[in-house]
Every structure is written in C-alpha cells, then in structure tokens.
C-alpha cells in the first residue's frame, strides 16, 4: 500500500515496481486473454467481470460471464463462487436456483469470504434456521463484518442469541477492526483513495483469492510486470 500511495501522491501512474508505462486497454485485454488461455484462475475470474459489465470494449455477455465464473470457481477462486452465489440467488441473467446459490456461498465462505458468510446467515435466517444463522453471523462478525454484528445484536434482542453470543461478537469484531487498521489505510481514506490490492497472476493453477476490505476497489489493470492491479 505504501508504495502505491507514494507514487500516486507524486502523480505517477506507471507500475510502481518495474516503472513500465501502464498498457492501453486493448493491450490489457490481450494479456488477460493470454493468461485465461493458460488456465490462470484470477485472470479467468477477472475476464468474467468484464463480460458481465461490458467493459474493456467487450459487449455485455452474461452467458460468457457465467461460463468464466464457473471455470474460475472450479479453479478455486472464492470471488467467482461469490459472484455465482449472488447471480443464482437473485436470478440475475440465470434461472434462480437457491441450491446452487447456497453451494457457491458455502464454497466462498470456506475460503474466507466474509460477504458469502454473511449471505449464508441471511439465507438460514430467512429459512427459520436461527441457530445456523447465528453461527454464520458470529463468524463473519469476528472477521469485521458490521452487518453481521448488527444481526447478532438483533437476534439477541429478539431472544435468538445469548448475551454471551453478543459479547463474543463485539469482542471479535473490535479485534478484527483493530487488526485491519493501519496508518497507510487511514492515509488512503484521508486522501480519498480506494484500497489498492495486488493479486499476482500465478503461472500455475494455484488460486490467489482477492481479499475484502471496507474500501471500494479501483479498476483492475494488468501491469507489464505481470501484476493485476485491482
């Protein structure tokens, strides 16, 4: 984070590692497609997002997006599982299928995806499974999810969680917030920067799942040195 803040404050938009100029969109797309052809998990997921939103000069193509998300999910990308979970839950461009949504959310949650864990809690709560819902909310609250903490509090008020449950959620949430705090993050917020996250596009089939944070992600750019700037 520090190196990106330093370069951005100096007005530099080139790669902070190799200093090569940022490639043009058509170059980026060609590089990503090459990585997809090589079976790169993160590149496959990212190309799916571009087809979903019609970016990089691509036509919006949900069929292609789902195909790429499914492939990335098979390669272990938690973000792909989360995308598919949302799409199947909402019936967005695909037929609504709650079983598939649940399976994809479970896979993402098992990889540490906080949003997927929260959604699992909501699904269980809506189904009347308060005990299972509480467990999901407790786990995600302790990972820093504000909404999960609020839901644990509501369940406590409604008599579906104990005082000890709520106290544990509060302690875990506070600890997570403290652990995620840093001078660089505070400076980024003060400067109005979105969090910059680097994901190395592995030349193997090993997945490097993207993290979640409380800051919006900037657009992804594949840098000349083989990094995916998110």
Précis, in short:
This protein has about 230 residues and is mainly alpha-helical.
Question: Any overview of this molecule?
Answer:
There is one protein chain. The protein is 60% helix and 3% strand. With 230 residues, the protein is mainly alpha-helical. It has a domain at 127-180. It has a 3-stranded antiparallel sheet. Helix 8 (130-141) packs across helix 9 (146-157). It is flat. The protein starts with a helix and ends with a strand. Residues 194-230 have low confidence and may be disordered. Belongs to the sel-1 family. InterPro entries: Sel1-like (IPR006597), Sel1_AlgK (IPR050767), TPR-like_helical_dom_sf (IPR011990).
Radius of gyration, rounded?
A: 19 Å
Q: Helical percent range?
A: 55-70%
Major β-sheet strand ordering = 1-3-2
Give the H and E element order. Answer: HHHHHHHHHHHEEE
Mean pLDDT reading:
78
Termini Cα gap: 12 Å
Q: How many helical elements?
A: 11
Strand proportion: under 5%
Low-confidence stretches: 194-230
> What's the story with the biggest beta sheet?
3 strands, antiparallel
Number of strands: 3
Supply the helix-strand structural class.
mainly alpha
So what's the overall shape?
Answer: flat
Which key terms come to mind for this protein?
230 residues, mainly alpha, three-stranded antiparallel β-sheet, 11 helices, 3% strand, disordered C terminus
